[in-house]
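Running log. JK asked me to keep both predictions on one page so they can be read side by side. First protein, sequence followed by its tokens:
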Amino acid sequence: MSVAKSTRKTPKKPLIKKDPQTTRDVLAKREAFVRAYIENDFHDVSKVYQKVYGCSAASSVSCASRLLRDANIQTMLAAELAEGLKLARIPMEKRVVDVWMRRAFYDVADILDDNGSLVDTMVNLSKAGLSVCIDGIDVKPDKDGGEHYVYKLADRDKALEMLQKYAQIIKPFDAKVTGSENSGAFVVEFLKTGEK
């Protein structure tokens, strides 16, 4: 039995050059979709798609689902979330560092006078950021039947130790965000610098 070879050649498809402007437009739409989906708290993906792409409600359901499963969109979502987490972490880190800095470097004379009384009201000390340096207030009866206050101030050595530990913890870490294609659920993982 002999096998005949076909000599018919399949025609080559003509190369289609992509217009750079079209590529930029597609990328801009995808970026807008990712931002809008995040801003919408990962809800109603078809309405987000409809708003960004300006299509009918019927076609937005399947198109949005298909776009959300796209690996490039998943990567864009993860990158956008990671950047958002970094930006959200900055104010929190600053507040933590500010509190420990105040507790480590306060001057007792800014809080208490020579008699052991507050130099100002708690409200004003709080406005000055010094109330975080007072760990406790004990009310003790005095020999005349009155009361006197004993203020327990922050341990500056402990605050320095905590500040040092915190600085070592936050310095080498970065965030990695991974997500599920179908559910829209994302996991945030903090990694040491260099891990990816």
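And the second, directly underneath as requested:
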Amino acid sequence: MKIIKVFLVITGLLFGLSACSTVTPEVQPTYTSYPTYTQYPTYGPLPTYTQYPTLEPYPTYTPYPKPTEILPTETPEVTNTPKPTNTPEPTINPELTTDKTEGVWLVGSEVAAGLWRASGDCYAVTRDKKGDQLDMASGSKSIITVPPSAFAVEFVSYPDTCTWSYLGK
């Protein structure tokens, strides 16, 4: 029993010394299993949370512009432009200018374009490719202009027979 008393005295002394020791708190081990709470809560900054990592793109490479190469220019030789010559008008087929009687005539292949005069009381109508009327002339000794763009000309006589004569352009 004496041994137990000695043992208890020694352990009590050791515990007493450890509580009053001058060892710094960083070195002294703590045996608390619960965190220590203060009377008033202290709020510190919360950690920043980002869902995705921040991406920093690589810098874009832009090539330095190259100087424009200036090539020597050649001066063109001066050439004299020939003077225009008067081109004679094409000759008209004499068959296209002969006198025409009543009927429908194709312009350019049966009748020449130009001025036509009636010999009596008649009328004439010029038409395009669709058959639409372009121009009309009627009366005694009437004159009609047949344009080169016309498709056909229709010479009509009433009540007498008329002859249509070519006057020229």
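Observation for JK regarding the second prediction: The first strand starts at residue 103 and ends at 106.
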